[in-house]
């Protein structure tokens, strides 16, 4: 049952009735809930009489039961029970049965002819369709046809009304009465006195549900300081709950009536209640209504806790409405957030102590009204106090229970406990990552080899030298064997992720040491302390944008974002998803240890997070960062050559991730992001950024225009963001007001310390900016610069990835003016208003085009540096756009890492070595291949040689010698790839392109319109508006392009015939490694064949053309699509799954052509001549 009082079960399932639960049996039948009036005037229900006289004798009849409990009892397939169901308008009997892990509820119907269950007949057709005199006859007939059904007997706590005898009434509530009664258990010789709580006959369904819920909570609890529960009589009406009879009355009346009660006795009552609440908390029950009126006193003066009407089962409950809750006993977090947990009961216990010490003279916080008391609890540090003169120990307990602690106090208290546990349970010891100690026998052998070396050097004898060589070889062989076994053991024990992390420290070592630098006075700094303080002062001087005004939230501010709340489970999952880290932060506890104790602290962290949000307070430890200076140049000499990377609190980063998980969907919901921004957003990346830009550039170059690009660099971008202007933008977005206040507290008055070696600098203050390295910083910076694209002229386009920005435009021949200069002027004014500085020394311009008219651009009367090649999001972009320099650098880097892998690792195990290859080598030559696809055959061979060289060296290591093509046991590259489970890099590049274009056509990427173009020698293929062409095919009843047709869209792989033709034309033949080598038959010069712009995406002569796309010669006057129809709306495809490529792939003819080149399928497929009909 949830907090709204509704059932989780499916009592109103379709199996009961097509019209709903309250439908009436037609054809003159009488509803099961109908009543008849006797001559005495008393209404009688025939169904109640049947239950009382016949049905309750069977153990598979459970009486009144709600769906959530029914689902728990039916644990096995074909287990069943019969129960009573109450809806808002009807009461009836039903059979509940679990079939194939689903519970079905079949309504039983009756009239003067007997009982029937129509829906049960539909589910089990072999069951005879007839009316039965008794329900057990239906069960017997069903069991004979289906012997596998299992009857679930009712629980022992379900009692019969015959065992209960009501005496005098003790009290009456809203929907129940309490009687003094006698209970005689089956087989017992004597009865006992009990308290019987009976539901009223006119009680509503929700009231009866709460009545039964209270009984289910009490059934879990069996303790001497909790009122005992004997059972519930729910087989027939009215429902009766039996509890322990406590004759001493409640604690409130006792304290008011007996003023002579000693303080010792009152403290004894408090101890009893504390023991009971401790037990209740151990059973995962939240009482929510602990007060003196709900504590009963026995004859021997022992306190017992009662009244579980508001109680809930679980570690935490969030209520949207607190109307029924006792306001004066509630904690601040419950009033603010609606959260109830174990700590809220602790608060209520403190309020209960104030009641007891004042002898319940008045209600807590009297004479305040409800609204004033509620505000006082939220704002006061200690809202509840006991009178002076009471025991000091009780005063301390009340303060501990009811102290309205600040977020700083709560966080400090938690972290002090965590640090204490860490110091006692973990021995802090520095251990090199992945290092394995060398065994003693190798150390002894090393000593022997070393002594043999020195002996041969002293004696100068040949036999001594040969002995040394023999020992050295044996030692090397044993050492290699030990190292390979240790590497494999580490991989198997720690897993691939941990092994890759360790391997990165070996293959890509990074030095954290800071070289000697010169300060502003020209003094050489050598000690870590001097360098740390010098760099910290340099960083502090970068924060120049101080707040111009104090932050104030408008009085009429109305946010549209829900309040950012987190739950225990959300915090726990966020902690577990984060990577392990032992970096030192302001927490002074490694994050690895925090992950170990996550189940213990997730509840406390959730409470601190929610308190921090609702109060707008941030602990000081969260606002303190340890800054690691990262060198911007190879040889840094001054403090300006470093950039700050902040290590913030681990716990703060957890909360930032929780906030980010709720902030990102909101920004997407309001469609905030500019289409030009690709940084840190779902479905966007550096590849989509470059793909859009390349599409615009190639379109302009096809028209014979030149493209001018300006790469904008911001000086200290993240560190210069002014807080007041950032908060104004968040307010304009209607971000939740609590989040705006929290972000203001998070950003202001931040401090940092620079770490050099093991030395920390003095504390420094940052008055502006967002900390680099924090979780929320990228999205906050994106929010701040998102409006940049709106100020540019329409002819100028912009592409952004966080702070990496480029603007560009296409210019016609002989143009002497450019709208880029106007864009630069507007951008300069925008930066002045945003208080961001442009780094003019790193802002460069690049021109693309065959005949380039170089225009001089200026920023604030200073010329922008012109370059012929520059780095753009990891790609080297040159003026001829051929990516040759990009691939040279990538290939050299891959060769370097390959050499390091074989030098550092001695293992022969393919699993280990292939893991290193896939993790560190292959990504270097596969990054962004959709953008920088290699067209040059030499580049393709060089890239493929990376994998061929690696597999050849690995295969040579396995057989014990280096192999050459002349060896008899030599296998070529394709066979080695098959042996090690690898695909060729060419095939992987094609697969990446297929997936990217399929995502675009299916709408899984935000970019849905591209003109994929290729200029290659004497042919160019133009793909215009892929989606519009596909939609046009759908509308004209032609074979659609995409996964729904079983045809892979825009197949990248050339057919075998076409490949042979290309090889013959180029005068190349295949080598044994699968690459291409020169043929002596080739006589023509390459330069005569190559056009200037051979930089396009790949050779696409063998690619199928969608409808509306054409292939025309470059020199043709009409180099346009044959049908330039306007874009059509995308049809509702209902998210079809990506189809598996068929064994034979067919081509789809284009209306504008007589025939189209066929799509080539997988290497094992064959080409079909006729198009297939889509399934």
Model description:
The longest helix has 46 residues, at 462-507. Helix content is 38%, strand content 16%. The two termini are 46 Å apart. The protein folds into six domains: 45-154, SHC Adaptor Protein (2-Layer Sandwich); 157-245, Phosphorylase Kinase, domain 1; 246-404, Transferase(Phosphotransferase), domain 1; 440-507, no CATH class; 540-878, no CATH class; 914-1023, no CATH class. Residues 1-43 and 1013-1175 have low confidence and may be disordered. By secondary structure, it is α+β, with helices and mostly antiparallel strands. Helix 14 packs across helix 26 (910-921). Strand 11 and strand 12 (192-199) form a beta hairpin. The strands form 16 sheets. Strands 3, 4, 5, 6 and 9 form a five-stranded mixed sheet that branches.
Q: In a few lines, what is going on in this structure?
A:
Residues 1080-1099 have a biased composition (Basic residues). By secondary structure, this protein is of the alpha+beta class.
**Oligomeric status:** single chain
Count of strand segments? 45
Mean of all residue-level pLDDT scores: 78
Distance between the termini: 46 Å
Q: How is the biggest beta sheet arranged?
A: 5 strands, mixed
Low-pLDDT segments: 1-43, 1013-1175
How many domains? The number is 6
Measured as a percent range, the helix fraction is 25-40%
Structural class: alpha+beta
Strand content: 15-25%
> How many helix segments?
32
Indicate the radius of gyration in whole angstroms: 40 Å
The global form is globular
What attributes characterize this protein structure?
1175 residues, 6 domains, alpha+beta, disordered N terminus, five-stranded mixed β-sheet, disordered C terminus, globular, SHC Adaptor Protein, Phosphorylase Kinase, domain 1, 32 helices, Transferase(Phosphotransferase), domain 1
């Amino acid at each position: 049952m949830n907090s709204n009082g509704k059932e989780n079960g499916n009592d109103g399932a379709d199996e009961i009735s097509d019209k709903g639960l309250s439908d009436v049996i037609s054809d003159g039948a009488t509803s099961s809930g109908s009543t008849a009036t006797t001559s005495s005037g008393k209404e009688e229900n025939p169904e109640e009489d049947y239950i009382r006289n016949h049905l309750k004798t069977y153990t598979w009849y459970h009486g009144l039961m709600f769906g959530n409990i029914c689902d728990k009892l039916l644990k096995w397939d074909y287990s069943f029970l019969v129960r009573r169901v109450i809806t808002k308008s009807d009461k009836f009997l039903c059979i509940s049965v679990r079939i194939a892990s689903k519970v079905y509820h079949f309504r039983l119907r009756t009239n003067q002819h007997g009982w029937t269950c129509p829906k049960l007949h539909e589910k089990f057709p072999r069951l005879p369709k007839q009316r039965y005199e008794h329900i057990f006859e239906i069960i017997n007939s069903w069991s004979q046809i289906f012997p596998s059904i299992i009857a679930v007997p009712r629980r022992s706590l379900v009692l019969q009304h015959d065992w209960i005898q009501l005496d005098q009434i003790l009290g009456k509530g809203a929907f129940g009465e309490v009687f003094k009664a006698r209970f005689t258990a089956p087989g017992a010789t004597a009865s006992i006195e009990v308290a019987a709580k009976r539901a009223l006959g006119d009680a509503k369904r929700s009231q009866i549900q709460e009545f039964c819920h209270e009984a289910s909570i009490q059934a879990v609890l069996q303790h001497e300081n909790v009122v005992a529960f004997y059972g519930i009589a729910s087989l027939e009406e009215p429902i009766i709950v039996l509890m322990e009879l406590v004759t001493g009355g409640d604690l409130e009346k006792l304290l008011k009536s007996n003023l002579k009660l000693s303080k010792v006795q009152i403290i004894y009552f408090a101890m009893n209640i504390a023991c009971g609440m401790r037990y209740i908390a151990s059973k995962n029950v939240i009482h929510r209504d602990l007060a003196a009126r709900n504590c009963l006193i026995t004859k021997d003066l022992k306190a017992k806790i009662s009244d579980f009407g508001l109680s809930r089962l679980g570690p935490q409950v969030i209520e949207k409405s607190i109307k029924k809750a006792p306001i004066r006993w509630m904690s601040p977090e419950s009033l603010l957030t609606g959260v109830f947990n174990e700590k809220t009961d602790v608060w209520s216990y403190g309020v209960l102590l104030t009641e007891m010490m004042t002898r319940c003279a008045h209600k807590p916080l009297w004479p305040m009204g409800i609204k004033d008391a509620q505000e006082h609890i939220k704002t006061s540090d200690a809202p509840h106090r006991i009178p002076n003169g009471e025991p000091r120990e009780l005063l301390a307990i009340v303060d501990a229970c009811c102290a309205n602690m600040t977020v700083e106090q709560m966080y400090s208290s938690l972290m002090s406990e965590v640090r204490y546990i860490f110091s006692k349970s973990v021995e802090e010891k520095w251990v090199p990552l992945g290092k394995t100690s060398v065994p003693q026998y190798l150390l002894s052998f090393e000593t022997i080899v070393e002594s043999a070396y020195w002996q041969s050097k002293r004696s100068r004898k040949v036999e001594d030298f040969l002995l040394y060589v023999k020992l050295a070889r044996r030692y090397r062989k044993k050492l290699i064997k030990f190292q390979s076994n240790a590497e494999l053991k580490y991989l198997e024990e720690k897993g691939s992720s941990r092994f890759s992390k360790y391997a990165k420290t070996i293959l890509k070592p990074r030095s954290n040491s800071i070289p000697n630098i010169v300060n502003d006075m020209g003094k050489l700094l050598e000690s870590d302390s001097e360098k740390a303080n010098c760099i910290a002062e340099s960083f502090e001087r970068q924060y120049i944008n101080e707040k111009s005004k104090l932050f104030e939230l408008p009085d009429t501010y109305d946010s549209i974002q829900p309040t950012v709340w987190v739950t225990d489970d959300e915090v726990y999952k966020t902690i577990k998803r984060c990577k392990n880290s032992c970096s030192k932060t302001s927490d002074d506890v490694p994050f690895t240890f925090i992950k170990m104790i996550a189940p213990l602290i997730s509840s406390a962290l959730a409470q601190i997070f929610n308190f921090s949000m609702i109060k707008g307070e941030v602990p000081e430890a969260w606002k303190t960062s340890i800054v690691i200076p990262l060198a911007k140049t190879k040889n840094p000499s001054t403090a300006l050559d470093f950039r700050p990377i902040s290590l913030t609190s681990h716990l703060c980063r957890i909360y930032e991730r929780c906030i980010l998980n709720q902030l990102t969907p909101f920004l997407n919901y309001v469609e905030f992001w500019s289409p030009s921004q690709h940084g840190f957003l779902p479905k966007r990346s550096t590849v989509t950024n470059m793909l859009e830009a390349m599409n615009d550039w190639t379109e302009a170059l096809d028209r014979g225009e030149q493209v001018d690009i300006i790469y904008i660099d911001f000086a200290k971008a993240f560190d210069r963001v002014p807080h007041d202007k950032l908060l104004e933008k968040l307010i304009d977005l209607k971000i939740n007001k609590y989040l705006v206040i929290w972000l203001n507290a998070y950003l202001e008055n931040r401090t940092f310390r620079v770490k050099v070696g093991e030395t920390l600098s003095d504390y420094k203050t940052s008055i502006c900016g967002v900390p680099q390295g924090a979780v929320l910083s990228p999205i906050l910076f994106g929010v701040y610069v998102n409006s940049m694209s709106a100020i540019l002229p329409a002819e100028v386009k912009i592409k952004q990835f966080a702070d990496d920005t480029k603007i560009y435009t296409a210019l016609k021949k002989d143009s002497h003016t450019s709208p880029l200069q106007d864009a630069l002027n507007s951008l300069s004014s925008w930066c002045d208003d945003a208080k961001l500085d442009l780094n003019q020394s790193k802002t460069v311009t690049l021109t693309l085009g065959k005949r380039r008219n170089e225009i001089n651009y200026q920023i604030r009367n200073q010329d922008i540096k012109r370059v012929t090649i520059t780095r753009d999001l990891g790609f080297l972009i040159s003026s001829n756009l051929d990516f040759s320099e990009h691939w040279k650098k990538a290939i050299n880097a891959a060769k370097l890492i390959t050499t390091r892998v074989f030098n550092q690792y001695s293992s022969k195990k393919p699993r280990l070595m292939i893991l290193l290859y896939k993790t560190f080598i292959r990504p270097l030559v596969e990054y962004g291949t959709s953008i920088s696809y290699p067209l040059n055959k030499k580049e393709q061979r060089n890239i493929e040689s990376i994998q061929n060289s690696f597999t050849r060296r690995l295969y040579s290591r396995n057989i014990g010698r280096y192999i050459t093509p002349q060896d008899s046991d030599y296998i070529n590259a394709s066979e080695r790839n098959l042996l090690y489970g690898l695909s060729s890099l060419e095939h992987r590049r094609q697969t990446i392109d297929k997936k990217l274009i399929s995502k675009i056509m299916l709408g899984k990427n935000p970019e849905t319109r591209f003109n994929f173009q290729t200029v290659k020698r004497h042919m160019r293929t133009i793909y215009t508006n892929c989606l519009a062409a596909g939609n046009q095919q759908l509308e004209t009843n032609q074979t659609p392009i995409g996964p729904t047709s079983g045809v892979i869209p825009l197949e990248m792989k050339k057919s075998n015939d076409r490949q042979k033709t290309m090889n013959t034309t180029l005068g190349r033949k295949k080598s044994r490694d699968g690459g291409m080598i020169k043929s002596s038959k080739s006589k023509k010069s390459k330069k005569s064949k190559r056009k200037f712009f051979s930089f396009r995406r790949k050779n696409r002569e063998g690619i199928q053309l969608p409808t509306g796309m054409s292939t025309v010669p470059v020199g043709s006057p009409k180099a346009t699509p044959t049908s330039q129809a306007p874009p059509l709306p995308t049809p509702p495809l209902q998210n079809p799954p990506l189809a598996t490529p068929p064994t034979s792939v067919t081509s789809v003819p284009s209306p504008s052509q007589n025939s189209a080149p066929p799509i080539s399928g997988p290497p094992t497929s064959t080409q079909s001549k006729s198009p297939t009909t889509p399934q």
